[in-house]
């Protein structure tokens, strides 16, 4: 799952980068780092880091505005000092140059990434539980019972006789009493996984949300360009007028972008994640009774004698 998440993120990041390289070439090189930081923050959020989708998205638009303003709205600016850049970043929060697109992007991503984050954390917890119980220590009483069940018949020369099913179940249930206590919690865990996978498959489709990032950014930049004169007037009052080349092209060319990479291809390329989710949850649902029936699983097979009237009951052959 984590590999699939990372694959989706890289796909979406490449799409977003190609947007700048195709439509906004004057700022493509400088926009590369903010784009990389955005998708790194999203990845960290999915993995459970103490961050939010809102802070990641707004931090990206804070970094993007100085570039849009100096490379597209006022391409003649030559003096983009650190102080002036910081002023533009802070001004972005007040004048909202990207309209409602930045907030819409937060809303759309928050819905889908929340379910992905929870599923990622749930899977990590499940792995931790399984690893812990896999190495559960056996008590001395359990060890004695296992030796008695497996090897005491050998002392009577009965090397081919196997334990009776009922005897095996009694021994295993005694040995695994502490592990079987996880049954109720494990059932709840499976139900939670089922809920999260259903959430991701419903209105919180991760693939759709990630495939829409480039379009939200494109619409936000176009909105800022269309409102360039008003933004320039406000910025000049707050941050002052920077040095500009002669014949400043204040009305930068607006380059509408229809589709950088077709959405259908993006979604189809990752339908495997949806099918993996379905296969995974169906498999996990079959393990709902795993910890309750672990003794039965261990006593089912070569360990015990089946379809025979002769077996070892701990004391004698019966």
Automatic annotation (TrEMBL):
Keyword terms: Cell membrane, Glycoprotein, GPI-anchor, Heparan sulfate, Lipoprotein, Membrane, Proteoglycan, Signal
Subcellular location per the Swiss-Prot or TrEMBL entry: Cell membrane
InterPro entries in UniProt: Glypican, Glypican_CS
GO terms of biological process kind: cell migration; positive regulation of canonical Wnt signaling pathway; regulation of protein localization to membrane
A Pfam family assignment: Glypican
Keyword Glycoprotein assigned: yes
Membrane topology: Lipid-anchor; GPI-anchor
Protein function: Cell surface proteoglycan.
Family (UniProt): Belongs to the glypican family.
Name of protein: GPC5 protein
Organism: Anthoscopus minutus (Southern penduline-tit)
């Amino acid at each position: 799952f984590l590999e699939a998440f990372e694959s989706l993120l890289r796909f979406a990041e490449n799409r977003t980068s190609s947007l700048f390289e195709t439509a906004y070439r004057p700022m493509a090189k400088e926009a590369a780092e903010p784009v990389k930081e955005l998708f790194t923050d999203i990845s960290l959020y999915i993995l459970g880091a103490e961050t939010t989708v809102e802070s990641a998205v707004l931090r990206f638009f804070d970094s993007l505005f100085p570039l849009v303003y100096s490379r597209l709205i006022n391409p003649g600016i030559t003096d983009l000092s650190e102080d002036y850049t910081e002023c533009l970043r802070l001004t972005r929060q007040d004048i909202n140059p990207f309209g409602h697109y930045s907030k819409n992007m937060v809303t759309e991503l928050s819905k889908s990434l929340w379910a992905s984050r929870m599923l990622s954390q749930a899977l990590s917890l499940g792995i931790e539980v399984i690893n812990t119980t896999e190495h559960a220590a056996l008590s001395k009483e359990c060890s004695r019972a296992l030796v008695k069940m497996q090897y005491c018949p050998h002392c009577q020369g009965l090397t081919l006789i196997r334990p009776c099913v009922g005897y095996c179940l009694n021994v295993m249930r005694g040995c695994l009493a502490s592990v079987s206590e996880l049954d109720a919690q494990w059932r709840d865990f499976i139900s939670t996984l089922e809920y999260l996978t259903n959430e991701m498959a419903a209105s919180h489709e991760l693939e759709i949300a990630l495939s829409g990032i480039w379009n939200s950014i494109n619409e936000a930049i176009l909105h800022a360009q269309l409102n360039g004169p008003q933004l320039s007037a406000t910025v000049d009052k707050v941050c002052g007028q920077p040095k500009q080349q002669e014949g400043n092209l204040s009305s930068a060319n607006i380059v509408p972008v229809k589709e950088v990479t077709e959405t259908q291809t993006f979604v189809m390329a990752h339908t495997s994640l949806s099918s993996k989710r379905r296969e995974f949850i169906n498999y996990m649902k079959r393990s709902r009774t795993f910890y309750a029936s672990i003794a039965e699983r261990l006593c089912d097979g070569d360990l015990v004698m089946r379809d025979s009237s002769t077996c070892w009951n701990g004391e004698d052959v019966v």
